[in-house]
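User: Predict the structure for this protein chain, please.
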Amino acid sequence: MKNRLITLVDLGLDSSFDASMTFVQGITGNINAGWDSPVIDVNFVRTRDHETAFSALTTPSSVLHVMAHGDHSEEPSFLSTDGQTQVSLTALADWFLDRSWGIASGVVIADGCKTGIGKWQRAIRDCLQDDITYIGTSTVIGWYEATVFCSAFYGALVRNRGLGKSPAEQGWDAADRAIRAYETLTDARCPYKPVLLTPSRRALRSLAG
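Assistant: Here is the predicted structure, written as structure tokens:
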């Protein structure tokens, strides 16, 4: 069975996002421990360069996991803590139009504040090549919320071998299990919410060239 590929993209670019990324890499390392060969492969990208960021965001993966501040004051964007790096979904959609390829991951985790609102969902659809499970957040989150959810999510994802299920369906199942685990552990409502998204008409035109 082909390994799952997880692409981790850090656009937050500060010590707290670095700690969260280190935690996720630790989880995947623990999952791989004890096997003769890894069951999960990981790409990790931390950059301020837009072209590099766009290339990372469109790498075909089982899971695309982006950590950054979620900004939608003007348009949905991933924003660094110092405000010097901003990657907007509108710019990514334009990049998709020019190259005829966009986000090609079965699961997208937008790990930032309020990335699950409708404005974000509509914008991400313009960047999609195929149906995905999109996991965003409904409120402001911090390091604690991210680590509790992500540890449960990746554990559930690997537990499910995925036979007969698409990557998006596997992601939905893992997210559902992670939400229940989060709420059991914290006695609080989970801020992470999965939704199935399909490419918009604009995305389909971009894909057609």
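Strands lie at 4-10, 40-46, 61-67, 69-71, 77-79, 86-88, 105-111, 132-137, 192-197.
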